[in-house]
Amino acid sequence: MFHDKIESGSPMSKIQRGIALVTGASSGIGLVTAQALRRDGYRVFGTSRKPMPDTADGITMLICDVTNDAAVESVVDEVLRRAGRVDVLVNNAGIGLLGGAEESTTEQAKAVFDVNVFGTIRMTNAVLPVMRRQRRGRIINLSSILGLIPAPYNALYASTKHAIEGYSESLDHEVRTQGTRIVLVEPGVTRTSFEENITRPDRPLGIYDTVRAGAERLMREIVAKGDAPEVVAEAVVRAANAASPKRRYTAGKAARQVRFIRRFLPEAFVDKNLRKFNRLPD
Predict the structure, then answer these.
(1) Cβ contacts of 98 within 8 Å, gap of 6 or more
(2) According to the 3-state scheme, what is the secondary structure of 17-67?
(3) How buried is residue 236: exposed, middle or buried, by Cβ count under 10 Å (0-12/13-18/19+)?
(4) Sign of CA dihedral 256, 258, 259, 261
């Protein structure tokens, strides 16, 4: 990636990596990732849906709703006005949804896809012309292990991550000759605020009450034991800096295990163990 020497005495790395834009950087994985990129020598712009002050460690915060075309174009224009280029885009903004798939209306399903999938597409479309002019750039899309495996009671969220996997892998082949690479980072379960990142179904059905409550308890348990956000941030930094990036970077031991299981073990074995893990009857 782009790098050059910066002025002596900087508290950051002595290498100026370039300009990074991180969506959903107000908290959790997004904030920690923005901080990690900043420490590594990037000038970092982060986005949030509501106004936020710049961080003490030098991350410039901008307002952006990734579901709004004009807001996306505006934030990219503002980064270009201030910095002149975009070397790395990290598409991190996303929302979760826990419940039976049929418990969500089509409108709720559309809302989840609008953030997780179309938000990524909007941001990507906005920076691709910039990176094409520069003849270099790196777009890092946050996927999930739920983009690799079935996810009972997370069907709509998992669907968005499956979509991101297919979109990213396909797009990388389209733009590689233009100097831009598209890379996936696949976290496992990460210790972030459960309540801030999960949405409940908008038409709950009584038949799912008991099992939905069990799924929520399980989610809380595994989130509490999950990887620190720094594990994901480290994977993003590796993906940003690799001269010849891999297509996928798994973040954490659990993510590596799931990827191996999905790729190499028989489907019946995966199915049985998935139900066991989710405490579902055979």
Answers:
(1) 153, 154, 157, 198, 199, 200, 212, 215, 216, 219
(2) CEEEEECCCCCHHHHHHHHHHHHCCEEEEEEECCCCCCCCCCCEEEECCCC
(3) buried
(4) positive
CA 124 to chain centre: 13
Coil vs helix vs strand at 87: coil
Q: For residue 130, give Cα distances in angstroms to 53, 79, 80, 125, 174.
A: 26, 11, 9, 10, 16
DSSP string, 150-163: --TT-HHHHHHHHH
Q: What are phi and psi of 63, to 5 degrees?
A: -85, 135
Residue-wise burial string across 199-226, b where 16 or more C-beta atoms lie within 10 A, e elsewhere: bebeeeeeebeebbeebbeebeeebeeb
Q: Is 157 a catalytic residue?
A: yes
Quick check: is 8 catalytic? Answer: no
Query: What domains appear along the chain, each with residue ranges and CATH number?
Result: 4-253 (3.40.50.720)
Catalytic residue among 48, 104, 143, 144: 143
Which residue type occupies 240? A
Is 161 in the active site? Answer: yes
Classified as helix, coil or strand, 243 is coil
Is 144 among the residues known to form the active site? no
Report how far residue 107's alpha carbon sits from residue 143's, in angstroms, rounded to the nearest whole number. Answer: 23
Report CA-CA distances (Å) from 112 to 30, 154, 273.
18, 12, 28
| Contact assessment for residue 140 and residue 237, using Cβ atoms and an 8 Å cutoff | no
pLDDT in tens, 164-184: 999 999 999 999 999 999 999
Read off the pLDDT of residues 34-74 as tens digits, 9 standing for 90 and up. Answer: 999 999 999 999 999 999 999 989 999 999 999 999 999 99
